[in-house]
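Internal tracking record. Fields below are filled automatically when a chain is submitted to the structure queue. Please do not edit lines marked as system-generated. If the sequence contains nonstandard residues, flag them in the REMARKS field before resubmitting.
Queue: standard
Priority: normal
Entity type: single polypeptide chain
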Amino acid sequence: MIMKYKAPLKGELSVPGDKSISHRSVMFGALSEGLTEAENFLTGADCLSTISCFRQMGIDIVQNGSSVKINGKSLHGLTAPKKLLDAGNSGTTVRLMSGILSGQPFRSVITGDASIQKRPMKRIMTPLTMMNASIASIYNNGCAPLEINGGGLRGIHYQSPVASAQVKSCVLLAGLYGDDVTRVTEPVISRNHSELMLRYFGADVKCEGTTASIAPEPHLTGQKVNVPGDISSAAYFIAAALLVPNSEVLLRNVGINPTRDGLLRVCRAMGADITFVNEDHSGAEPCADLLIRSSSLNGTVIEGDIIPTLIDELPVIAVMAAFAEGTTIIRDAAELKVKESDRIAVMTDNLTRIGCDVTATEDGMIIRGGKPLHGASIDTKKDHRIAMSFAVAALACDGEMDIQDADCVRISYPGFYEDLERLSL
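SYSTEM-GENERATED OUTPUT FOLLOWS
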């Protein structure tokens, strides 16, 4: 796809529903009694993979656009799938479902595409094995496909070596089927959507410091879930509006959960003009309208506890840093290496292609911003967040940007290019 500089971005937009919350609405709805209705559900390929997996286990799910109805069968109502469970490109589906599958009285195998089959799964296999689950990497390489023979789990207190919502959620979901309370302690708090939503559905979930705990065998009841706009999707329009001169964009109903709002904190540290409008803290997840005006950005240091709150947004933050005056240093983000691509290597390569002075480090990047940047051929490695980040860069670069495998954005945001086009007309 060829992209080039366009006019200032103007207008308002509702970004698709939060991917993390959309996944969980299906999973928790399936394990509940009665009907769960999810509105503003993200219809990207990842979340559709979760729907497909639960349909294979006997759950009746009706999807009508962004409205999804899940007819739950309670905690022990799933049936054995007749074939492999295919998670597609979704790491969330594999890791969270592995926790659920570990508690089932049947054998299952869960896998995904070529990218998923390279992503590390030992981080969930270790605690699940501690809980007495039988889980094995079929190719014995610590990756999917995973064979799981469920049942007979025990509650544990797991000290996670990484701050990962997927690991934490996997263990907590297995804990639903344990014989005692299950606890997970992280180095720092990762996103807490599972804790909030499980409690909303009726689970006994407690959080103290960096430890989350869940009591076994709760009675979960179907709920109405209004999925807020995904801040990871909003990030690209925030960045575009900040970088393209004379832009002003209003993003409606965006999730501002404190465990996910690191992007907003970094933007403000860089000098961004972002205003919260119509804040709403009445539901399980806080949200607000975001008013973004173009701004002159400065470099900053991004490290430590804030990293888990913006790990998915670091590619587009790196793009903002390339246009900012001064140096931006990203540290403590080695997790970027095991995403859909090695995002440290891929971002460094592509930023260099457009003329940015950037150095890769073991756990991040050093970006010396402010140089004139130009269009180039971008190798996305079929990573949706790389593609969207350089679509944003294209709006502020000189010349044309050729984004290879641009359609990979369908993983999380099928209408991304159309929405970007509408704001820049």
